[in-house]
Amino acid sequence: YLIWSLSRAAERGNQEGPEAVGSKLDIPLRVESLTIVKQCEANLCNILKTKFGCVATIGGVQLEFMMPSGVKVSVWKADLTYFAVDAVVNEANDELKHHGGLALALSTARGLQIQKECEDYVKKHGKLKTGEAVVLDAGLLPCKKIIHAVGPKLPFKPAKNDVLQAEPLLKKTIWSILDKVEEQHLANVAIPAISSGLFNYPLPECAHTIVSTVKQYYQYLPTGRHVPQEIFFVNHDDLTVQAMETASHLIFSLYQHQSYIIVTLPVSDGHIDVIVNTASVDRNLRVGRISSAILKKAGLEIQKEIVKVDKKKGLIIRTQFNTYLSIFFFGLLQILYNSVLECLITAAAQPYTSISFPAIGIGAFRFSKDDSASIMFDAVSDFAKESQQKLEVYFVIFPSDHETFQVFSKTIQSTHTKKSNHRFPEIKASTPHLILLGPSDESTHEAEKWLNRLLSMQSHTITIYNNFILHFRMEDHLRLESPRKGLLMKSYLTQGHACIEITSKTKEETVFAALEVEAMLCKIQKEFISEEEGELQMLSQTELSCKRQTVEKSSREFLDRSAAFGIHGLIVMKVEKVENNPLKLMFDLKKKQLGSSSSRTMFQCIPAQFCEMISRIGFQAECSPLMGLNSGG
């Protein structure tokens, strides 16, 4: 039996604190904690999974908009397999076979029930066509339903014509999903970037089509139709989340006649009608990153054209070299504000619907990044006040130029707060946080305690108490002893327990090193469990099986154990019964060898991180606690 207990004082304190909903916890991250968590994400997620059985997702809601219809749209970074909503959308193939991507992740995470129901559906109704969707049960997923939707499949590195042909099919897919939301009267639905992964749909275009279709669907919905509370755009990788965020900003534009957004894309990507570039005095397009990119894409003919231009008049060149780019402006005027404004006016007069600018002036003109951003945004804002032509304005920053991206992002946010004519109210993204999902409330709370203790420490020294240190191999010790500036590690024994003490000049470096050691210990613990299970299976000659079931509080099993703890001032919160046939056989065999016909109950205090291990392979010396020390494992 696994018994979770608290002291009476701790129980009173626990009642006053926040409670987890089910087995999910959201842990807000301060700036310094966020830095640690992001840099050590892989190690941290592995540790939390091994120690406490918890899946950790870093991120959460990135952006929210409220549509006039009352539907809230939000962009999330999260794991769909653990996203608690009415329905999750699965990017399916026509046979509903879960061979890869999100489909495989959903099926693998929550058992064979999902795949079996899909196979039964296809046998009865036949294959799905591209653009169709079907609602089936969610198995053990935290959502209520799964909407399996078939998006268009494109060839590897698709041409523009491939994308144009696929666009109406992707729109039909999203429309089908939203129809199912209405039919099922769902309160919310989580939609990933369908077709962008294994189906090769270019990410920017995919995000734009999905978001615009959602907007169109609810913009013209007849009165009296079912309207969900929220549409979640959920993806787990930063690149896709950023694309959905960019598309949402663009589609749910904040101004009536213009919108602008900062993107980090190659100059030739996307459906941009006009590209603005600053040329060098000698008109050499090989000078400058954007000029070079244009020259490479459009060819040498564009270089010949620019040589002929009159500096005072600027230049307009039409090109057929790239179907994505229909016109180039090369601003040679010396006044940045007037140059930007003239480009906007000229583009709108054609009329074109989109234009992109680089961060003009921060190179040869030696403008500060703040001045460049401020002047360019002022020009765009002034243009928007006078123009009746809707124009999407992009500011294209190179991915490696993080500082410039941050400055322009800050400026655009500042500009937004000054405007009052919002088309769709924007809700600020929530504080960065870590989402913990575990098998039980106890597991998630123990994981939270361990994590908070690690991230909130004030000292530059951490001591890890864990007997699996004794299992370190030579290469593990050499890894710990490798010289790192300002970092000191020493291992020792105390009260029969192995310890590693880590000291560094900064708290962050200490935590980084501690997480590295914890990851090594988790790896060794997994190997130890695997070896013990192999030996247990061989000796018992039975298949491995392990189940943990919560005992009812009214049962004799619970009351007997509660009484035993009560005399020591402890309150039993939960009792779990472990059913492990190989362990039971080995225990009975040991009793027979000792000639004992009876047994007595022994209570052993253990750290929470070893509960799963004990359930699988029984009590081990490695998991005994260090008495007298309030420490994590």
CATH topology of the domain at 57-237: Leucine Aminopeptidase, subunit E, domain 1
Q: Which shape, going by the Cα principal axes?
A: globular
Number of DSSP helices?
A: 19
Uncertain residue segments = 7-22, 254-269, 318-334, 628-633
How many β-strand runs? 22
- Cα-atom radius of gyration: 30 Å
State the end-to-end distance: 21 Å
Structural write-up:
- The structure is a single chain.
- With 633 residues, the protein is of the alpha/beta class.
- Among the domains are: 57-237, 3-Layer(aba) Sandwich (Leucine Aminopeptidase, subunit E, domain 1); 263-423, 3-Layer(aba) Sandwich (Leucine Aminopeptidase, subunit E, domain 1).
- It contains 19 helices and 22 strands.
- Strands 2, 3, 4, 5, 6, 7, 8, 9, 16 and 17 form a ten-stranded mixed β-sheet that branches.
- Strand 6 (133-137) and strand 7 form a beta hairpin.
- Helix 11 (336-349) packs parallel to helix 12 (369-386) and helix 12 (369-386) packs parallel to helix 13.
- It is globular, with a radius of gyration of 30 Å.
- It comes from Cyprinodon variegatus.
- Pfam families: Macro (PF01661).
- Keywords: Glycosyltransferase, NAD, Nucleus, Transferase.
- This is Macro domain-containing protein.
- It is found in: Nucleus.
